[in-house]
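User: I'm putting together a teaching handout on how multi-component assemblies are represented. Below are the sequence lines for each component of a complex, exactly as they appear in our records. Could you produce the 3D structure of the whole assembly as structure tokens, so the students can see both representations side by side? Please keep the chain order the same as the input.
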Amino acid sequence: MKKKIIKVIIFLLIFGILLHYVMKILWYPPTAVSYFYKEPKNSLDVVYIGSSNAFIHFNSVLAYNLYGYTTGFLSADTQPISLAKNLIKESEKYQNPSVYIIDLATSTEDLKLDIDNGIRKTVDSMKFSKNRIEAINESLKYIKDIDKKDYIGYYFSFLMYHNRWRHISPLNFTGNTSLYKGYQFAESTTKVVPQNPFNWLDEKSELPQENTQVLKELIDYIKANNLNVIFVVPIRYFEPEYNRKLNKVIEIIQKNNINVLNFNTLEDFNEIDFSKDYYNSAHLNVYGATKYTLYLSRYIKEHYDIINHKEDENYKSWNSEYERFKAKYKEITKQDFNEFLMSLKNRY
Amino acid sequence: MTLTSLVFALFCVIALIIYFIVPKKFQWIVLLISSLIFLFYGNFHISTIIQALVVLLPTYFLGKEIEKIFNTKKSRNLLIIGIAIILAQLIYLKYINLFVATANHICNLFKIQYQFEFIYRNSLIGISYYSLIMISYLVDIYRGTCKSEKNIFKFALFMSYFPILTSGPFVRYGNIKEDLYGEHKLNYKNLCYGLVRVFWGLFKILVISQRIGMFVDTIYGDLNTYTFIFIIMAVLLFPLQLYTNFSGSIDVIIGISEIIGIKLPENFTLPFFSRTLTEFWRNWHITLGAWLRDYIFYPLLKSNAMQKLNKKSKEIFGKKIGKKIPLYLSMLVMWTLIGIWHGGAYTYIIGSGLLQFVIMFFEDILGPISKKINNKLGIDTEVFSYKLYQVIRTYLLFAFTMIFFRATSVSNAIDIIKHLFTNIQSLFNLNLMFNLINNIGLDIFDAGMLIISLLVLFIVQLLQRKGNIRDKLFKQNIVFRWGVIYTLIFAVIIFGCYGVGYDPAAFIYRQF
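Assistant: Of course. Below is the structure of the complete assembly, with chains in the same order as your input.
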């Protein structure tokens, strides 16, 4: 009997290992969140949470090269603000960052809808844990239009991804080479309409009750845990109604004495070229991202007590990733990144 | 809770763990509680409780009473009362709309401006199964072939044993009671054999049946766009979809029961290798066939009315033909009932009932003639090529009858038959063909996977003809054995059509 029990255990163990690797291959190529988990414990100084604006706008390897601090992303496309609290909790399990940056681009979105599967795109990258279940519960409690049979797919993502066997690409085996420690290199350029300035409105309008509640819970958590947080509004066009609601969000946060940087209204951030620096209407390309990173990385350095790891051997992967980024920049633009950087550094 | 859902898998794992943990004398109670949870899952309502009790209580008490007054006229009356109660509820909940549709047709026929409204009732899962099982229980006691169950809770377990509520098979009380109430300890061999059977069933349902379903549904859903070759393919593939779905469900059910230690009867024995439709039905839904044979066909054939008819017809048509008339009449009644049982619609009565009867009737009549011709012409009917011809002929006939089974109405079925041979010229319009192929519900990967999985099914069935394939597998060395099992499990996990983006496996037979 003992022999048979051992056999069953070995069988299940091999099954578990095989399942883990099969699912890993079948899953989408690594995301910004996957890179967060790859970093050694307590090695990240900054954790950036929020929508795609986070990992497309903030070049973490550039920030490291400039100031020697490391940034990880718990960000995904159209990530709703309802996930932010649990993502901080997730971060605290693995890292002890000095600062959190929380992107507010989707903070006014209707929480009753899982717009573009923002919840799924985030939680599918999270490791299986109690906090992941909590994160799913927290965001799904507002959702009204998902078929009940699809709920289970949020908890067990293989129900969604097992079907990807037909789409497996080399990226599933080699990793996503367009990500640099999570930062996504956005190369093409779109002329943004309307042109500069985006005419940021000063008026405010009321937030939906759910968004106010989520924001309140997030602020309470931040204050209760004495966390350093910078909320950021990315520089991009927002529909007037969203603009007004964002003003309300900013007001609520500032009333709680938490820092908010609205890049649309910052007087000393006015170098974005609306005909060259955008990848699409909502995202900066590599040029815009460089300008954004120069500003924000210096702001973090100046306002928070952060260690410079540049001389630390344990962080040498950040240097090699920066070199890989520069090589990619040169390959795409046929220019040297340092030259581009020097042309901007004088201004920041 | 469908057989392929994650909820069902979790439910079974929890139920099995508890079953093997509790003291053995309480094991049947665990099964009863699990079965009641399954029976009322998502359907716990006063009306469904009443439905269950309406069958449970009379059958239980009448069974005891019939046994007490065994072999008396009163026991016969009690039996009739019991059957009437069970059938009344079954007809009311499942087949009432057949009467409504008939009444409406009659109204239309006589140009009466009145239409009866269809009645939709929320019925318990497996009502078509447990109703017939309960009837067989009463009849078996009446005939003295089994004893009644004295414990009402044990009887409730017999009625509601959860795996068979989904798709059968039909069980007899006398055959299952020992296993059902017996004490079992987790047996390594049962566990291995059961799990392999479960995953083989899931492979059939999720990898093959669901994939064929994606194609068949697309074609049947748009007869104006898809013509000729596509409709022929859909018609030819539907029996395979039905078979893999139904026999796959039975594999899951038998596999789960095997782990527990309950042996259930087989419901399929390679029907697509049959040389005649009569043989086909001996290998397809075997337990339903056996039930109808034992409780309808033979009693009817032996009834006084049929005996009188037998005598009369022999007088009129002679001994040879005359003796066949009551036989065919009994067959007609039985096949009509099989059709009705499959669903309260004329499509089922025609598709899985009357057409089957007609073909078997001709098989019976033409069989001897064909034999004589073959003998005269010196055709060897035992060679591979002739057997293959017969097997293909049987498949084609069955596929044809299933047009009615799959159709949404009789007129839809006729429409499909009409479309089978129209627009043949579309075959030569390559642009149209490519466009249609792009929209048939399967991409190139699905089509490839379907071909491979059907090939696997075919090879496994060939091996099954030569003996128990699991016995052979478990005699192999561990590397090969585990390799095959892991391949099977991962084939289901990776290539199965389930989860987000797919409809949960809709079981073709579950509606019954």
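A couple of points students might notice: Chain A touches chain B through 21 residues (CB under 8 Å). DSSP finds 15 helices and nine strands in chain A.
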